[in-house]
Amino acid sequence: MGLFERLRIKAYIRFHQRQHPNAMGSAEVMGFLDHLASDQHES
């Protein structure tokens, strides 16, 4: 696994207040992707 993937995983976990990824579902994934998309539009 590369550095970029590790950073994205860490950001995903931090975004969801350090919940384990196994405890999350598709709604959390979509929320994180929306967050990433909105960050890219702002920068």
UniProtKB/TrEMBL annotation:
Record keyword DNA-binding present: yes
Domain Integrase SAM-like N-terminal, first and last residues per copy: 9-41
Pfam families hit by this protein: Phage_int_SAM_4 (PF13495)
Keywords recorded for this protein, A-Z: DNA-binding
Domain of life of the organism encoding this protein: Bacteria
Listed Gene3D superfamilies: 1.10.150.130
Protein known as: Integrase SAM-like N-terminal domain-containing protein
